[in-house]
Design a protein that fits this description.
Layout: H1 4-7, E1 11-15, H2 27-34, E2 40-44, E3 50-51, E4 54-55, E5 69-72, H3 76-89, E6 93-96, H4 107-117, E7 123-125, E8 131-134, E9 139-142, H5 146-149, E10 154-161, H6 164-176, E11 181-186, H7 195-204, E12 210-215, H8 224-233, E13 237-242, H9 247-257, H10 264-274, E14 277-279, H11 282-291, E15 302-306, H12 309-321, H13 331-340, E16 346-347, E17 351-352, H14 363-371, E18 379-384, H15 389-403, E19 410-414, H16 422-427, E20 432-433, H17 436-447, H18 476-484, E21 493-496, H19 499-509, E22 513-518, E23 531-535, H20 538-555, E24 563-568, E25 575-584, E26 588-595, H21 599-603, E27 606-610, H22 615-624, H23 628-631, H24 642-658, E28 663-673, E29 680-682, E30 685-689
Parallel strand pairs: 1-2, 1-5, 5-6, 6-7, 10-11, 10-12, 12-13, 13-14, 15-17, 15-18, 18-19, 19-20
Antiparallel strand pairs: 3-4, 8-9, 8-11, 16-17, 21-24, 22-23, 22-24, 25-26, 25-28, 26-27, 28-29, 28-30
Helix pairs in contact: 3-4, 7-8, 11-17, 12-17, 13-14, 14-15, 19-20, 22-24
Family: In the N-terminal section; belongs to the acetate CoA ligase alpha subunit family.
GO molecular function: ATP binding; ligase activity; metal ion binding
Pfam families: ATP-grasp_5, CoA_binding_2, Succ_CoA_lig
């Protein structure tokens, strides 16, 4: 069902309407009149015959016209009967402000609302929300004091918020920064219409080019990947502020809107892959929205220009922190600047115009014209100090004039309190920030968007030789044989069911060898003393083989023994890494990559990606961890076979996608990363069936 009538209604009824226009039942009437709503406003309350000069009806059934929206502001115990009346009246949408449903555990009461509209033409938004506002046409079908206190500029930003308060708060901050809003929709408990439907509507809305989402949780089997693809197709931006990022926050989210907050790290990984911006704070959110008003960077090379050296140095430090490149200018540009600037000026990056522009009226503009022509840069960032007054205003005017001729964006940090001419910069859609940190951080968010996994077709993992059967419980040996079918390289070796077989295998693969006892009932073999490394000869092999069987019989007398895995002792790897798979209820299989062995738990230096992956994204995972230099030949160390590691990541991802209905989790830890040209080897593997 189309949501057009929800955002562009002709008739709005308010059940629970009040003559107190500051109450929840009164605010919608006040705001609809204040904003000049051209349709019909129909208050409903049997106590009154008239409210704010409008006829008041005893009930919905007494209204003799088609109703697009019914706003419900009554006690929770009365909501169900109102919804049923709306269904009988064939109202198109019911916006339920009332709380007291799933957010406090009253799941049954909320389910009754869903059942009441099932199969009808009536849809529910809420309960537990503050409605929607169409700022383009002045239709505030909701309540919030901000609508009374502020004049909201019409613009290109649509807001969808599970938290009504956070949603309206973002409008207040947006107003301060000169941003314009097209719509806001607050979601509440999502009994019927969910946040994904509202995002889709705004992506398809002609007045909206940036969709901002303040979200607590993502439902299972989310449509978010589909919507990220839609945003890219339409050339629009999605920006998320994800709430419930910690255990405490997740618990609060459940009690606030009945939402499962989900894994924030998985959410961030999805956003990075899909070209969606995910921020962690309201300040970040507004700063990014400011940045998206300007032109988009064509790369991550920034030239910093300043009139005070310290501010430029600070900006350069922050660029380095956010991995934004600050390359030197071309010799042609530097030579041109030397002719214009004093001899003591810096003509590299950062460029220091010095305070000489106070003496020479056209100095700033002439320098600006030279810098923007440089082929080494994608973004020009001004990191100004406390310059203000007429000189500063002329600088702003010069920037505005020049920016109109550029395809490259200009970002500005200005270390001074609000100035009158700042409005001109904002009106020209030039992103402006009070500190270098906030300016560079915003550039980092915008530049960090990876190529979408949905926008590129690249080589993926090879197809398996044959399907894998459903497993009840798998040993390391069984798991490895399954992975081998997907192109995962294993150590030389095999499964021995007798000492003679173990002896023969050891002779074939050569000492030193490793022995591991295999049992479907024993998953943590090392902790149980059932792994013995570095066995050098036949005598040690016999003692170790017997010791494993004795320990298993003593500690796990009921365990079924599959045999003893005999493998080569992998020598001189560059590093040990881990590949893990977990299945997220919202996004499906998620891959985890990092240093292996004990380091994954101690350091927590891991990268996450939602599957499927492209080869480019596989390399992106590898290079994104802090320990990457250790894999890539740091200080004369051997360089690891990163091509083979990327192949393995893709092959494991293929396995995970093919077998996601059978397995809940998987760990390959360690994977031995061998020197360049020698591949990678799967040292241990664990699969947990569903």
């Amino acid at each position: 069902m189309s949501l057009v009538r929800l955002f562009y209604p002709k008739t709005i009824a308010i059940v629970g309407a009040s003559q107190n226009l500051d109450s929840i039942g009164g605010q919608p009437i006040k705001y609809l009149q204040k904003y000049g709503f051209k349709g019909n406003i129909l208050p409903v309350n049997p106590k009154y015959s008239e409210i704010a000069g409008l006829k008041c009806y005893p009930s919905i059934s007494d209204i003799n016209e088609e109703i697009d929206i019914v706003l419900v502001a009554v006690a929770s115990k009365r909501v169900l009967s109102v919804v049923k009346e709306c269904v009988e009246k064939k109202a198109h949408f019911v916006l339920i402000f009332s709380s007291g449903f799933a957010e406090i555990g009253n799941v049954k009461e909320q389910q009754e609302l869903i059942e009441a509209v099932k199969g009808s033409g009536t849809r529910i938004l809420g309960p537990n929300n503050q409605g929607i506002v169409n700022f383009v046409e002045g239709i505030p079908a909701g309540f919030n004091p901000l609508l009374d206190a502020e004049v909201v500029r019409k613009g290109n930003i649509g807001i969808v918020a599970q938290s009504s308060g956070m949603g309206f708060a973002s409008i207040g901050f947006a107003i301060e920064r000169g941003l314009g809003i097209s719509h806001i929709a607050t979601v509440g408990n999502q009994a019927d219409i969910d946040i994904m439907e509202l995002i889709q509507f705004m992506l398809e809305d002609e007045h909206t080019s940036i969709v901002t989402c303040i979200i607590e949780g993502v439902k299972p089997n989310s449509r978010l990947p589909e919507l990220a693809k839609l945003a890219k197709q339409k050339g629009k931006e999605l920006v998320f502020l994800k709430l419930g990022r910690t255990a405490v926050g997740k618990k609060a989210s459940m009690s606030h809107s009945g939402s499962l907050a989900g894994d924030a790290e998985v959410f961030d990984a999805f956003c990075q892959q899909a070209g969606v911006i995910s921020v962690k704070d309201m300040e970040d959110l507004i700063d990014v929205l400011v940045g998206l008003q300007g032109k988009r960077p064509g790369g991550n090379r920034v030239v910093i220009a300043t009139e005070t050296g310290g501010s430029g140095i600070l900006a350069a430090d922050i660029c380095d922190e956010f991995k934004i490149k600050t390359p030197g200018l071309t010799e042609e540009t530097s030579s041109s600047l030397r002719k214009i600037l004093p001899s003591f000026a810096s003509v590299q990056n950062p460029v220091d115009f010095t305070a000489q522009f106070f003496n020479e009226e056209d100095l700033f503009r002439n320098c600006l014209l030279e810098v923007v022509k440089d082929s080494n840069i994608d973004v020009l960032m001004f990191s100004f100090g406390p310059t203000r007054g007429k000189v500063a205003e002329k600088m702003a005017d010069d920037i505005i004039k020049v920016s109109k001729t550029l395809t490259k964006p200009i970002f500005i940090s200005w270390l001074t309190p609000e100035q009158p001419f700042f409005k001109k910069l904002r009106a020209a859609n030039i992103p402006l920030y009070p500190t270098p940190y906030r300016c560079v951080r915003t550039l980092g968010y915008i530049m960090r968007q990876e190529s979408s996994m949905m926008s590129k077709e690249e080589k993926s993992a090879s197809k398996p030789k044959h399907a894998v059967q459903q497993a009840v419980s798998l040993t390391e040996y069984q798991t490895k044989k399954m992975l081998e079918k997907y192109g995962i390289k294993l150590p030389k070796g095999g499964l021995a069911t007798s000492f003679q077989e173990a002896l023969n295998l050891s002779a074939q693969i050569h000492y030193p060898v490793v022995l591991k006892l295999m049992s479907p009932q024993i998953t943590h073999k090392t902790d149980a003393g059932l792994v013995i490394l570095g066995i050098k000869d036949e005598q040690e092999l016999a003692a170790s083989y017997n010791a494993l069987l004795e320990r298993a019989g003593t500690s796990f007398p009921q365990a079924e023994i599959e045999g003893v895995l005999v493998e080569e002792m992998v020598q001189k790897p560059v590093a040990e890494v881990i590949l893990g798979i977990k299945y997220d209820v919202s996004f499906g299989p998620v891959m985890i990559f990092g240093l292996g062995g004990i380091f994954v738990e101690v350091l927590g230096d891991v990268a996450r990606r939602v599957l499927p992956l492209t080869r480019e994204q596989a390399f992106g995972m590898i290079s994104s961890i802090k320990a990457f230099p250790l894999l890539n030949g740091y200080r004369g160390r051997p360089k690891g076979d990163l091509e083979a590691l990327a192949d393995t990541i893709l092959n494991v991802s293929h396995f995970a996608l093919e077998q996601q209905d059978k397995f809940a989790e998987m760990d390959i830890n360690p994977i031995f990363l061998m020197p360049e040209g020698k591949g990678v080897i799967c040292g241990d593997a664990l699969l947990i069936p569903r």
